[in-house]
Amino acid sequence: MFLRATAIACVLLAGCTVNPEKIIAPDYAVNVNWANKIANIGVDKYARLLPLVIGSTIIMADRSGQLMHYNTSTGKLIWNKQFDARFSAGPSLSSAGDMTIIGSQEGDVYSVSTSNGDTLWEQTLSSEILSTPQQRGDVVVVQTNDGKAYGLSAATGKVTWVYERTVPVLSLRGNSTPLIVSDQVVVGFANGRLVALALDDGKLLWESSLAVPKGRTELERMTDIDGPIVEKDGILYVSAYHGQVAAMGADSGRMIWAREMSSQLGVTVGETLVFVTTASGQVWALSRESGATLWMQDKLEDIASTRPAIVGDKLAVGASTGDVYWISTSDGQLLGRLSRDRVSELAGASEYVEHLDDDDKYFPPKPHANSVTFRPEVVGNNLFIVYQDGIIASVSAAK
């Protein structure tokens, strides 16, 4: 099925008015355990501030420079610490769990103690950070928005290597998160290229193209690997905007299969299936082995805004309207939705729209304040949903 240009523009520009009531989906039987306005994520930047759930704690960072620990059972604040920064990516944990790493809009990387937030080291890089830093052994890998990937010493923050690619004139705002696999790190760039670098010194091991620029205008020629790269059983699964969804060998970059399919959100990988939300808002289920289509759900066109989260035998997909939709993994049937209204009422939060920068010319423009921007996080029986206005909700299946 061909992707419609109008649908693509609608999702990316967030300028279409969609009435969710026209989507026939009953209220889904879930319990909203708690919902709080806990973070200043902000609607004026495409910050990648995702919740990090570790045991009984949710770790969050926000654009105002706060690092916060919340209780997963109650949503209550445990402690917070203020930094002189505008956080834009993270947090992530070190392999040992004792170090939390966060990136800022100013290009600063912060390594802080997970237990109390004390600063261990700080390093300034060349541009803002819009993907979650990753750490393995003595190396912290950070990608900046100017086409560079850095290797930093995990002990001191000292830069040990830099790899650079040319950034196109126009690209999606954001970067894919570097993926560390064994002794290499896989990085996606805004030119549609995927590269593997040696973790210890940043030397190029292999590269592959997921998209070739096409069209007359810079907008039509955008090719961007912006979503997470997933590894499973030695195979990488990745998507590109105006490009392909593909599976390739992690050790060589050899293409196993590829489908012409535009997605800036990345993929979700199950045991036998790969799930994709396309740029137009369609949700697809593909065979992990061959890339063949099992089913396609198009009722969320124009509003689906996250890659799917696997919740048992179902998928949860966030929407720009603030609703979360449940889909059957076996046949793609739309099962129901959790409305934003239920969450807002419990959170006691009014609509929140931060001042928008007049000089913010990045593409795509700002999302709706109440949209679900990141894939819901599944931890045990709970689903944690983060909204663009800073509300986070804990949801579980109704008994």
Task: Describe the structure in your own words.
By secondary structure, this protein is mainly beta. The protein has a domain at 1-45 and 266-399: Beta Barrel (Lipocalin), CATH 2.40.128.630. It is built from two helices and 33 strands. It has helices spanning 5-13, 340-347, and strands spanning 30-37, 48-49, 52-54, 57-61, 66-71, 77-82, 87-93, 99-104, 108-113, 119-124, 134-136, 139-143, 148-153, 159-164, 179-181, 184-188, 193-198, 204-209, 230-232, 235-239, 244-249, 255-260, 267-269, 273-277, 283-287, 293-297, 309-311, 314-318, 324-328, 334-338, 377-379, 382-386, 391-397. The strands form eight sheets. The chain has a five-stranded mixed sheet, with no helix packed on it. Strands 1-33-32-31 form a four-stranded antiparallel sheet, with helices on one face. A hairpin with a 2-residue loop joins strand 11 and strand 12. The longest helix is centred in the first third of the chain and has 9 residues, at 5-13. It is globular, with a radius of gyration of 20 Å. Residues 1-17 and 349-367 have low confidence and may be disordered.
- H/I helix tally: 2
CATH architecture of the domain at 1-45 and 266-399: Beta Barrel
Distance linking N and C termini: 38 Å
Helical coverage, percent range = under 10%
Form type: globular
Strand order of the largest sheet: 2-7-8-9-10
Largest sheet: 5 strands, mixed
Strand content: 35-45%
Oligomer: single chain
| Secondary structure: number of strands | 33
CATH fold type of the domain at 1-45 and 266-399: Lipocalin
The CATH class label of the domain at 1-45 and 266-399 is Mainly Beta
Query: What structural class do you assign from the helix and strand content?
Result: mainly beta
Low-confidence stretches: 1-17, 349-367
Mean pLDDT: 84
**Rg from alpha-carbon coordinates:** 20 Å
